Amino acid sequence: MTWSEVLADGKERQTLFATLAGIAIALFSYTRFLRAVEARQGVSFIDPVHALAGPIDLTWPIFLVLYGGLILAIAVLARRPLDLLAAMRTYTILIVMRMACMWSLPLDPPPTMITLADPFVETFTPGSAALTRDLFFSGHTSILVMMALIVRTRRLRIVFGALATVMAVAVTLQHVHYTVDVLVAPMAAWLAVTIAGARPTDRQAPRRS
């Protein structure tokens, strides 16, 4: 379906508005939730992988991979409205899952963490405090794994899979996340995609051009 067809179809139009409302509510709630998490004390533990490697400051590579992956994902998914809506529903579920996990397992940041401050956000809002307790599970890794599971072509799955792997290694080496945060992220992404019915096989077959 094209965007015109989605807007012309009553059912799909309702789905579009419901999806937009859902992700807006989730993001609004998420930002408020993160402030509460940041103010809450948690537990920390010795990570054996951290003891072997790092910390290494990979802030710029991490955000280049993240934003590059997001731009590519939007460019690809925007061509097929139903695919983009499926991705948005999945991300909404992923947000809710992260909130539940962070609330259930409050963690203090690894003692050797190099804070991951978004360089683009800092450019426009200097002095903003970086988050350190949004740990379990890795959002950066899970969103890229999510995209690898949603896109239709094998080539794109490989690209997003590679980006997710680079991200997982980078946030671990920077000690931004405990290793378990990163290991759980792909499973969480798979579960969110499954719940949302966002796998390519769950959606209508693409039209031939």
TrEMBL record:
Gene3D superfamilies: Phosphatidic acid phosphatase type 2/haloperoxidase. Keywords: Membrane, Transmembrane, Transmembrane helix. The chain crosses the membrane at residues 16-34, 58-78, 90-107, 135-151, 158-176, 182-198. The keyword Signal does not apply. InterPro entries: Sphingomyelin_synth-like_dom. It holds the Pfam family PAP2_C. Residues 134-190 form the Sphingomyelin synthase-like domain. This is Sphingomyelin synthase-like domain-containing protein.
